[in-house]
Amino acid sequence: MKNLFNLITATILLFSVLVSCKKNESVQSVWISQKTLTLEVGKMATLTATIMPKNATNKTVQWESNNNDVATVNNSGMVTALTEGKTLIAVTTQDGNRKSYCFVTVKDTLPPFEPKPIEPEMVFRVFDEFDDEMIEKHPDGSFMVNVTWDEDNWIYGFLLSFGEYIEVLEPEHVKKILKKKAEKILQKYL
Q1: Is this model's pTM higher than 0.90 or not?
Q2: Quick one: pLDDT at residue 112?
Q3: How far apart are CA 112 and CA 81, in angstroms?
Q4: All domains in the chain, ordered by first residue
């Protein structure tokens, strides 16, 4: 019985020595599964980070986008396309601060606007909100309203309150602002 106890003690000590002698492996490199990625607005894709050597001790990474207005990335490498544009997604290792990048292009998927007749409740709103001399009615039932306003967040909200029944024809920068705001609203419901 005493020999069995000595054998067990020797085995435990040998195991302890082997575990304590294991060497920490430092990260030498990291790369992302794709160097480029193209997504449509509202779509998602997952990028994967591969760390070398495979037996590296600390495989913790941090993901980030250099333009969160275009696309975001979460801690798992899930990229979400928000608005048309380009961004660079980076992964950085905690050990060694090694980096790799993916160039992301986000394309717009919104269909072109086609004028449609306005619902009766919207017709009343057009005539309630605008002076008659600003309104031009088209044969297809759509309206053209020509206004000049000071630009601010209230105006953007007012225009967005018309929902799908409005299209700003100019100026171009206001169209882009409304598009970004509408896309941010859409993201809340995906």
Answers
A1: no
A2: 56
A3: 19
A4: 29-107 (2.60.40.1080), 120-187 (no CATH)
